[in-house]
Amino acid sequence: MVNTPAPPPPHLVTLEHDERFSVPTPPSLLLNLMPRTLEGQITMEKTPSYFITKEAPRRVFSMSRHTKLIVVVRDPVTRAVSDYTQTLTKSPGLPSFQNLAFRNATTGLIDTTWSAVRIGIYAKHLENWLRFFPLSRLLFVSGERLVTDPAGEMGRVQDFLGLKRVVTDKHFYFNQTKGFPCLKKPEGSSRPRCLGKSKGRPHPQIPSEVLHRLRDFYRPFNLKFYQMTGHNFGWD
Ligand SMILES: Nc1ncnc2c1ncn2[C@@H]1O[C@H](COP(=O)(O)OS(=O)(=O)O)[C@@H](OP(=O)(O)O)[C@H]1O
Asked: Is Glycoprotein one of the keywords UniProt gives this record (predicted)?
């Protein structure tokens, strides 16, 4: 969520506020939580759960209708497995992925109340945002391209925010050990930096028929999402 001042000459991204694990905040409080923003600065706030929270679009709109919204999306099947992997590290006794994903294993009925499944129905969540914000206020960043072409995706982000393209190819290198792109020289440091251990973890092996069933489930929602955004993310 990016709060930009109305006349936009911004050239600087300044502050980030991560509320991932907190309850959604009402608009009046939301604004109070934001740091003061000088002209020419952009305040960024990062709360992944806002995209899927029913009340969030109205609240963000009431706070500022000029807010720009950036959503990173990846193949919902991989996303579900990634989500499961993260929960598994916190609760090692968790039932298997397929136990949680299916309401009925025999019929293959998917359990859409399981958050790891529900979050990936992007078209449904986007509908809620489009009641308040025009599509032009939203940027969808491809999680896959963020790995294969981080500078390209960051280029789109900078353009969307009306920033000069400062972050380019020369800021990234591919780290063979991590298996992901990393920053060559983060701000204020002379040493390269990759994302932490909790990003890019190996996923458990999920039976292929389970993944196949899940892929079938998501297909219509993905197609709807491509139509709504005008962007084919290539997940099918
Ligand atoms: N450069 C780089 N380094 C490491 N990981 C990368 C990178 N770019 C994207 N990814 C993918 O980001 C996934 C983690 O994202 P999260 O959704 O957990 O991030 S966040 O908590 O919302 O910030 C994480 O998912 P997992 O692979 O399931 O761990 C990665 O695949």
From this structure: yes
Sign of the torsion formed by the C-alpha atoms of 205, 101, 213 and 96: positive
- Identify the residue whose C-alpha is closest to ligand 1 atom 13: 199
- Number of helices followed by number of strands (H, E) in the chain: 9, 9
| Residue 161: other Cβ atoms inside 10 A | 19
Counting ligand 1 atoms within 8 A of each CB, the residue from 22, 49, 199 with the most, and so the one to mutate, is 199
**Pair 69, 40: CB distance under 8 Å:** no
**pLDDT, the chain, mean:** 89
8 or 4, higher pLDDT: 4
11 vs 8: CA distance, rounded Å: 9
Closest alpha carbon to 44 in 24, 18, 22: 18
Question: Phi and psi dihedrals of 219, rounded to 5?
Answer: -50, -55
Which helix (H) or strand (E) element contains residue 33? helix 27-33
Fold of the CATH domain 68-229:
Rossmann fold (3.40.50)
Q: Residues lining ligand 1, CB < 6 A?
A: 48, 82, 85, 146-147, 180-181, 195, 199-201
User: Do residues 1 and 60 make contact, with C-beta atoms less than 8 angstroms apart?
Assistant: yes
The pTM (predicted TM-score) of the whole model is 0.88
Which tens digits make up the pLDDT trace of 211-233? 999 999 999 999 999 999 999 99
User: Scanning the structure block, which residue is given the tokens 């701000």?
Assistant: 187
